[in-house]
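Think of the structure tokens as a kind of shorthand, similar to the way a musician reads notation: each symbol stands for something richer, in this case the local conformation of the backbone. In the example below we present two proteins back to back. Begin with the first one, reading the sequence and then the tokens, and try to describe in your own words what changes along the chain.
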Amino acid sequence: MPPFTKTLARITCGLAVLGSISVCSPTSQSQQTASTTPSAIPQTPGSISGRVIDQTGTFVSAAVVKLTHPDQSAPQQDQTTDDGLYSFANVAPGPFEIMILEDGFATKTISGTLNAGEALTLPQTQLSLATEKTEIHVSVSEVEIAETEIKEQEKQRVFGIIPNFYVSYEKDPAPMNTRQKMSLAWKSNVDPLTIAGVGFVAGLEQANNSFKGYGQGAQGYGKRFGSTYADVAISTFLGSAILPVVFKQDPRYLYQGTGTTRSRLVHAVASSVMARGDNKHWQPNYSNLIGSLTTGGISNLYYPASDRNGAMLTIETALIRIGESAGANIFQEFLIRKLTPGLSHKSSSNQQQQP
């Protein structure tokens, strides 16, 4: 090619490049077209597998395993074998999430990224026991409440010495069951002060020569002591344990402590012939009435023949005991509480209110 021609060609080619006109080379157009066409690289699917165990290392079978992938509208699902294995084939490359669910275990989630054509084996997945939210409602039974109240009653002693077990200063005491009624009667009868009181009464009878048939001396005192203690024991067990169990009644005096003097006096006297049932309803005090009559009848069996008077003595003894009960209740309502130390723990609702 002549020099002039070569120079013209170079100038033309330079102008063509500046104007993006591919005239410099026969292959320039095809190369530019190839450079602007996106390359389609194939995305080979892969697989994911793994194993599920529990905290002891035992394989977890039949667990539900779900695989979610951004390119999938619905998750793939599998179930672990007896060996705890699961697997997913034809999984598209990219990020994924696996969720493992099994009853009794906390849900486990695993995230990762799968490369094209990769056969990914995940590390063993250990499931933890599910944390259960347990609500425990603690309630105390009436028997337990009564037991606590009785223990307080057993501490009640007039002047800190004389037992005063059969009065409740609670506003609404829990009913006593059979065992509690029998147990309280036993503790009252074997209390040293009860026995000492019986000895004192027997001494007075000895001094007054009451029940002359018993005679005097140690033998006479022993008979008087035995008969007096028998009266106390029989009366306590019958009127405060056995019959209250039969008639389902509360053998205690229930302290009122509030209201007018008249209402408290009526409550005290009425309590000798009325009692609160275990159902917390007031009813005739069969336990005290029948107990007094029965005790009087039984006493005829061991009192001297000269001092027995059949039915009259029984009725007289019963009436005396009912009257004594009413008098004792009045003292309980208005006086005994003040003489019983250790009651400061009682609620203000039970404090005595003067009219």
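Once you have a description of the first chain, move to the second and do the same.
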Amino acid sequence: MAMVIPQFVLRELQYIADSPDPVKRTRGKRGLDILQRIQKQVSCGVTITDKDFPDIKEVDGKLLALAKVLNAKVVTNDSNLNKIAELQGVSVLNLNQLATAMRPAILPGEVMNILILKEGKEQGQGIGYLEDGTMVVIDNAKRHMGRNVDVAVTSVLQTASGRMIFSKLKEEVKGEVYHQAAN
């Protein structure tokens, strides 16, 4: 697979990386770092193109115009760009959808070990996270904050902003059979 990175995208990333806003600056630097890592991948040929569309002001519009000219797919995690590209007939590889598809399935009944980092919204709840950032809500776990505990998954909820896992402390589950989640 060959990847084409337009010079106008690099300029925008540099502009964001130089922003006085620390959040924007961090995002811009991360974007540049990721592109640099992709470029070093032996299996992925990366080309930087100077092709530009001076009559189009927005970077998203330029990107879609370039994709049409090259008959290429746009790779993005921007849901609005994704929608506009699809409306204009440009193929898209959505990184968020790809990441979601690659997450391991978590099913009710699985047991996992979670570090309780903070209290939840409901009384007594504890909150922890999987490596992929998925939030795990654990009933009656507030008292275990700062410690790892074994939990049994009770349900999984997919939301617009990601997946949430609800669970109970394994020690509080009586007479139910659970199996160990593969890590």
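Compare your description with these statements about the second chain. Residues 110-180 form a domain with the OB fold (Dihydrolipoamide Acetyltransferase, E2P) fold (CATH 2.40.50).
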